[in-house]
Structure formats: C-alpha cells, structure tokens
Give the backbone structure.
Amino acid sequence: MEETKRYIQSFLSQKKIDISSGKAALFAAFASDEKNVDAVKIIQENQKMIMQNWILKNRIDDILTQTVSIPNGTVNKKYHAKIDFNTLGWSDFVSFQIIGLENTGLEFNENDELTGVPEISGDLKIKILFRIEGEPEDSVLNEKIITLIINPDPKSLWKNLESDKNDPFWKPDNAAVLDQFLDKNIVVASKRGRSHANTGSFREDDFAFKNFKEIGWSVLAVSDGAGSAKLSRKGSKIACDAVIQYFEQNLNTEQLKEFDQVLVEHHNKVTDETSKKISHFVYQNLSKAAHFAHQKIEEFAIQNETELKNFHATLIFTLVKKYDFGYAILTFGIGDCPIGLLNKELTEIKLMNWLDVGDFGGGTRFITMPEIFQSDRFSTRFGFKLVDDFSYLMLMTDGIYDPKFVVEANLEKIEKWNDFLEDLKGKNEDGIKVDFDKENTEIAQQLSAWMDFWSPGNHDDRTLAIIY
C-alpha cells in the first residue's frame, strides 16, 4: 500500500501536482483504490520488462560490435585457431552455431577450434548464430560475423613459364638423374628457380659427372651461373663439361699408379713426404682442370664475340676413388657452393672447400675471373680427404645452401647437416620424402619434388648432388 502511494505521489509530482495536507485523506483513499493499485502494478511490470529488454538489446549489441581477431590463414597450409568464448566474455551464450565454412576446407570442432587446410583465399565471413540468457527460446538467433583472412598460397602467385627452346643456349628447365658412382649411388637434381620460371628465363645451374671405370676414378662437377651474367647458363654448362673433358684426356695411367702407391704408403703411415706428394698431385691435376674450364669458357666467348664476364659461373668439383682401405676424395671450389662430406656414423662433417662470400653483393668469385689463378689463396681452394667410408658426399648450389643453412658457419655444424638430412627424409612442411635406400629407383624424382620447398626470399636455381 505504501509503495503504491509513494509511486502515485512521485508520478503526480513529476506532473507538477502536489498533494496538500487538506487532501491527505482523499489521496490515501485514491491510492488504496483497487483499480489504481492494479494500474501501478501493471506500470511497474512494464517498466521492469522494458528495462530487461534494454539490457538484453544492449548486451546483444555489445557482442555484435565487439572486435574479434583470429589469425590469418594461407591456402594449402594447416590452420588452427581457438575461439575462446570465456576470454571473449561470452559465457552467457545459451546456444550457438557456426555457419559459412562450407567448401572452405575448415571446420569448427567441439573444442571451439577452427581447424583444417584452407582451400580458398579471400575474406571469409564466418557467421556465429547465437542466443543469450534471457532471450525466449523461440526468438530469432542473433548473427555475428567474424572475418577470417585467408591468403593465397604464395607458390600459386608465381608463374611457371617455359624457357625459349629456340634459344641457341637452351637447356631443360629441370633435370634429375640417378646413377652409380664408384660402388655407391649418385642422385642429382637441378631445378630452375621460381624467379626465373616467373619470367620464362633459363636455369643457370648445371652439373656433370662421369665414372672412369677402367682406372677406378669418378668425377662430379656442379656450377651456379651468376644471375647478373646474361649467358651464365652457358658458362655453367661449359665449366662442368670441361672438367669431365679434362679428366677424360689427362688422367695419365702411369701418374695414377704413382699416386695409388703414395696413398697406400700414406694410409699405412702418414708422413710429411706422403702428405707433400698428395698435395702436389691434387694441385697439379685439379688446378689444371679448373684452368681448362676457364680456357674453354674464354674460347667460347671469343668465338661468339662477347665478353667473358657474360659467362660468370661458380665451379665446384670432386674426384673420387675407392681403394681397399677407403676412399680418396679430392676437391676444388670457387664461389659460394659448398661440398660437404659426412662420415658413416653421421657424427662428423668435413667442409671440403671454403666459400667466396662477402658482406655485400659481389663477394662471390667465378671460374671466369683470370685473377683467381694468380691469387695467393688459389692453393687453398683444393681439398683432400682419405676416409674408410662415408655416408654422404654432397655438392650444392646456394639455392639449397641459403635457405637450408642460412649462414656459412652452419655448414661446419654436424647438427645442421643432420637436420638437413631429416628434412630430406620427410621432416618438412610438405612431408615430401627422399628415400636413400639403394634399391629405390624413384629417388631422382623424389629429390626433384623435394626441391619445390617454399622459403620466403629464396627463389634461386637449386642444384643438389648426393653420393650415397
């Protein structure tokens, strides 16, 4: 009664009607009238309903305008993001559903997670249909839209234009081969980089190898043509072919017999004399092969009336022979392409050459540069190792070295090489595996497929030769 009386009095006061003392009894009777009591109850109930409706509408609007950020995704790359309802303050949801994921490759699971592999790019509009506490069960669900940005697969943004087969210096954009190398296998893959495929230009890397079965030696050469040299694709090919040609013509049987004898002595007992004789043989034969490659490129440049620098290319090569007591491995290197020798137990790495790298562009040296043969450091470009056995002998261009080892110092860390091997054997983003079982005849194709790995900023030609 008193509550009704106060309510009516307040209402009349708002209308500027005051109850005088002389009207007190009249007002008391008016406020206790059943009709007026019921009217006040109805008004108060309606006010309460309006308030509740406003609180609901305001809460729903807060949810609809609330910023919800979820990580961007990428086409063909696994995606995972949690929509944490508690963190978002959505504990008052009594029901909800997610729609808009059809044909996207994504799904929303029972753990409130968006997972899957996106199949389409663009701004995906994900709808959350929900009802909160206080809303009638038969009310229309509220609709909140969350935007999920799915970026295109970066690989798909690169064109793959064929190079001009009518060019006089054309060579295949990709090459892969499996063969024997002494009593081991050799697999080589050389792939045109995305930067070249995007413009329809040529593969600048090259390689060549040969087994000289009659004398027991095998040779392997790898070259990386300089991107700034317009005919480097030819320079790298000439360099590799010239190394093979040199040893075809100049592996003197008598000289090899002498070297074989020195190696036997060296294996039995290492002396200054045997070490000196080995160094002399390595230098005499490999330096002449390197100079022969230089001369061949120079002759070709003169014949074609163009500058030698147009054929700039790095060059690494190895000459290997198996003896009863192990393998003799001889190497030469100029440029920024490493030669790595891994022992049988995969516990040691021997970097068989040092790299011409600089702190700025132009640090790399090339077989086409005459001054390298007069340099005081020329004699340090040769390597020799006599080992009982080895697991892998790898020659690679910087298209492999840069993304996989990043810096030169990592080339001398066995753990980095073991990581690299794990990568080759399938521990990579794409799950592509290279199977080094000697009976595997598909390894060349596997290595070529592995070379399609994605590495931001690393789109150069890739060549990797592995003796295993």
The longest strand covers residues 122-132.
